[in-house]
């Protein structure tokens, strides 16, 4: 033992020398070493934790007396990690590679070589999981390595147990090493010690069976982990626009970035919706359906042919655009098309329903995830402390942003101080209440006014349509869309002004603002829908009571017209052979679905245009004006009016949400809507990123992003629910047009399901479905769902209450102290 | 680590060696480090650097440098960040955040825009809120307790590499 110690001592100084000598020592008596290990390890452990510098040398030296030279006391201890490991497992080639990886993982503090540097980065980035894994591998490896040693002496039970204990301690130490606030050097040295110890004695315990198998397993695990690491890196690199968003985040703070993250998420959803509609509806029809011009419904009528290719008509989505896969009316109602027997109507129906279902699912899932994250941050018991310690955003690297951050922190402190002071004083309740009531009244007036305006405008456009659109100029034709967009632009500012009457806390004022804007948009949208429905009903009122008659009449007219080509008499029961008539000349029935789809598409396009133009004019031109005219203007443009614009987060988010609502509403009638939206979001992302970086200044009051995320999701869910109502209503109660679309000829659109069940599924399936759709079965099911919702709600309430109780207890305990 | 070494090197190319096999004893003075773009705007940059520095004066060797960035990175666990955050805010390094420390923190955060009575008010409130053992200053336990409940702590201490 004495000799061991001495040799160990000298080994501290010079690693290189110990290489050779240690090799010899490897065969020294394990038992005595173990004895030392037991006693001193425990000691060494505790000591290491308390004392940084001193023990570092003593500890490893003690260990080294039993083990290989490890210059833990030295700074460049990495340099001998490799040889150390190699020595330990001389026989095993693979374990040599393992060593290098080991080194890599533990991390070179002072990057000795490229390997180590990479390793350190990895160890910093990948976390203790890898280290723990590494340790397991080491153990297995060491199982094979220390075979030679363990075979030499029999081990007693007691010693075994104690050894196990120590090994466990070491393992725990390794696992928790990350958390300790020690210097890197110390961590590395302790880590190495612990690792070697574990290796050595784990092997002794395990008796190292199946050397080759372990080695193989070790190699596979290593390869697998490397693969996982690479895959993670690849995944991170694949996230679209990540660098752009990070850049914005560093300049403008996390709140503005959250808008772009939201935008990106929406883009993902729209991509999937696009995939569904494109792949399952548009492509089959384009490839396998009857080509353009073969059927009356697929051809531009003769009357419109002259203008069909004009840009104006195309921009308006009539003409060729109307009679294409983009809209509902093009699709034929054949049950199956093409050689694949693709069931077009069924697919159309299911895609429509499926996209809505998918949207519901994903929004709810994201909400649940956000709720989990938000979870426990609800109490305001540490208000000031948090403001002081957590309000500085360490991500900021830009002086301008930093300035604004300072200002916003100051403002937030002042706000909190004012609140604190206010809570200690009384105010004139009556005056405030009166003002608030007045403000709400004004807001309601504005909302009602805008609703009526839209209604009026839609009515007017109906009149224009009846009289023929060619008589009117651009304004009349696009009146509805422009009015809606203008309202969307000006009313929020009006609400802003009104809210200054209310004298609320800014956060509450913001919520009111968002709520009012939300109501505004909602009101607009619904008035729009109702006006549209009115229009449809107007036509339907003509048609519905006379539908069959009408059909007969039209068909009769058609046969008459056909017969007229014969120049013969008019047969009563026309069984004349079909004449080859150009489909463009056939008289056509009305098609309200395509009309609705067109309206939605036009609205989306005009919304997109308005947004872009607003950005260009409102932000860019304004910035240019302020920057260049500042020199020759009387007052300082940059600080006074108009100054640079800020990025309006809430407005943009709401715009995004409502846009999505329109897409959901319209995609059943116009399969091209998701595609248009994908294009819109894509360009919008680039345009807005550029505009933000170029023309906007960071906000003065930096908006807290964490809590409002769920608020936006909740609104999205609400909008989704609302936008599916019209589509569902039309599917269930309005008969489809008889002359266009995949459901023509049926009395209700959902009949396509029953038709499929009859024809394509075995008969017992239909019976089962028949039983299942029995009201007697559905009502109890609904009842069950309601009960379970109630139950879950009750449990969650009780949990919250228990939570509150505990918090109160904590507070009282604190006060006691 | 490669990148970190690159950055470290950039700051003082004549002093920092590319090759660490001989383990040279190289330390960069605080002035150079606080001029790094990530730290430049940070009001606590001197404190950050000093709390990672071995000799307490703010010079960082490469080990300390890596240490600092590893704690500030996204992968460091919360407890570790809390420990270092405590060190950063403890200006007089007495292992307690006393009222004077709080005042200094507040001044750095708001660039001295608050009036004296506002500052006192805020500091009093902080101590009132977070001090559990009633000694008039924040020990590490108090700090940890308060930070662990904060929703934003982790997010604002992230660092992109």
Automatic annotation (TrEMBL), chain A:
Q: Which UniProt keywords apply?
A: Membrane, Transmembrane, Transmembrane helix
- Amino acid composition bias (Basic and acidic residues), ranges on this chain: 16-25, 113-123
Name the GO terms of the biological process aspect: detection of mechanical stimulus involved in sensory perception of sound; vestibular reflex
> What is a single molecular function from GO for this protein?
voltage-gated calcium channel activity
GO CC terms? plasma membrane
**Basic residues bias: where?**
26-41, 58-70, 124-142
- Outline the extent of the TMC domain: 591-706
The record's subcellular locations are:
Membrane
Composition-biased stretches (Acidic residues): 148-158
Which spans are transmembrane here? 265-287, 308-331, 346-363, 434-458, 514-533, 711-732, 768-792
Specify where it is mainly localized.
membrane
**Highest taxon in the source lineage:** Eukaryota
Report the membrane topology from the UniProt record.
Multi-pass membrane protein
Cite the residue spans of the region called Disordered: 1-158
* Family in the record: Belongs to the TMC family.
This one is known as: Transmembrane channel-like protein
Organism expressing this protein natively: Molothrus ater
Automatic annotation (TrEMBL), chain B:
Among CDD domains, the record links this protein to: EFh (cd00051)
Please indicate which superkingdom the organism of origin belongs to: Eukaryota
Task: Provide any one GO MF term from the record.
Answer: calcium ion binding
Can you name a GO cellular component term?
photoreceptor outer segment
UniProt record, GO biological process: calcium ion homeostasis
Please give the SUPFAM superfamilies that the UniProt record associates with this protein.
EF-hand (SSF47473)
User: This chain belongs to which protein, by name?
Assistant: Calcium and integrin-binding family member 2
Domain annotation EF-hand: ranges: 77-112, 118-153
Q: Where in the cell is it found?
A: Cell membrane, Sarcolemma; Cell projection, Cilium, Photoreceptor outer segment; Cell projection, Stereocilium; Cytoplasm
